[in-house]
């Protein structure tokens, strides 16, 4: 845009700002109200700031180039607005309308002021349209980047929330897994489990896969890596939630889980964990004989005080 066009645009903004603001704010408020966004007073303040920065940028160079330092403040304002709207749930179109809402009232004023200069009107309309399109596309780009950052952060938070490590008993941890276990989630699982082992000094960790829909070779490898990492930290692992379908799948895949204790339910795994740590529940001690089997007779004696009389 030549200096003359920029000066003319700045003049219109300065002289007709109240009229432009009225129509622009009306359109923006209709959009913002659906999303619980800014108030009318806040929108008017944003518009005044936007117009002031545009006029300042238009007056600093012979040609308008949105990439030059003269437009830094305009880019900063549009970036702030776009990022805020991305967090509030606005759509890309609603965000771009922050700029595009200027077109209709601005062109109406141009037609009024330049009705006797059709050639200049067409030229100025084209250059202004190009400028506003550039500003609008910039808001869309920033919006998309901000939205992706929000999604990535939410995914990370969901990963952390979906892999809670619970202390079931002194020295016994449980890690219930729900959903698909991929490489990214395995890393989060491993870090959470290892940190909890360090914090609690646990000797047994139960990894419950009841909520894992399918187990393939990749999932099994992820589980084995987690078990190996826990052992390096001094804790043994028990995998619970082995359903018949999962057991058959593991056998068909040829996955070797012979070095890992597996149980059908979390309750069964908890019993084994109590046995291996020598803990008792409700005064009933769980003991292990020399071969590692439960001392059934001893347990029965504890359960029945009259046995052997």
Tags for this entry?
2 domains; disordered C terminus; single chain; 5-stranded mixed β-sheet; 63% helix; Transcription Regulator spoIIAA; 309 residues; Globin-like; 12 helices; alpha/beta; two-stranded antiparallel ribbon; rod-shaped
Description of the structure:
With 309 residues, the protein is an alpha/beta fold. 63% of the residues lie in helices and 10% in strands. It is built from 12 helices and 7 strands. It has helices at 3-15, 17-35, 40-58, 72-88, 92-100, 103-113, 118-161, 183-200, 217-232, 244-253, 266-277, 296-303, and strands at residues 166-169, 172-178, 204-211, 236-240, 261-263, 280-281, 284-285. The strands form 2 sheets. A 5-stranded mixed sheet has the order 1-2-3-4-5, with helices on both faces. The longest helix has 44 residues, at 118-161. 29% of the residues are buried.
Helix and strand topology:
Elements: H1 3-15, H2 17-35, H3 40-58, H4 72-88, H5 92-100, H6 103-113, H7 118-161, E1 166-169, E2 172-178, H8 183-200, E3 204-211, H9 217-232, E4 236-240, H10 244-253, E5 261-263, H11 266-277, E6 280-281, E7 284-285, H12 296-303
Parallel strand pairs: 2-3, 3-4, 4-5
Antiparallel strand pairs: 1-2, 6-7
Mean pLDDT: 81
Instruction: State the low-pLDDT regions, or none.
Output: 283-309
Task: Examine the secondary-structure arrangement and name the CATH architecture of the largest domain.
Answer: Orthogonal Bundle
Residues in helices, as a percent range: 55-70%
Protein name: STAS domain-containing protein
Keywords: Phosphoprotein
Organism: Paraburkholderia antibiotica
InterPro entries: Bact_StressResp_Reg, RsbRD_N_dom, STAS_dom, STAS_dom_sf
